Amino acid sequence: MRYLLAKWMSRRFRPFMMVEDPEFLEIFQMLNARIQIPSARTLARDVREIFAMSKSNVKELLEVRDMFLAAGLPSVDSKH
Question: Residue ranges of the alpha helices (H) in the chain?
Fold first, then answer.
């Protein structure tokens, strides 16, 4: 749930405070009375953590690609 909310809010430029809006909470609680919605602060932290992990993964992918190019081997995205 936290990951999906963080992904949605960051991709659609939604304000984190939205999760503390009474009507927003009412919608979720109507679907599941026992649901626990994370705070805006928690979601902001989650987005930062997801970004840091993604940044690290992209860096590793680019390093592997650079190794292929340096060795003269075709890279994964090569058309040849």
Answer: 2-11, 22-31, 40-70
pLDDT in tens, 49-79: 999 888 877 877 777 777 777 777 665 565 5
Structure tokens at 28: 């979720």
Q: What are phi and psi of 21, to 5 degrees?
A: -75, 130
State the number of CA atoms in the 13 A half-sphere of 23 facing the CB: 0
First to last CA, the chain: 42
Rounded distance between C-alpha atoms, residue 42 and residue 37, angstroms: 10
pTM assigned to the model:
0.67
Measure the CA–CA gap between 70 and 66, rounded to whole angstroms.
6
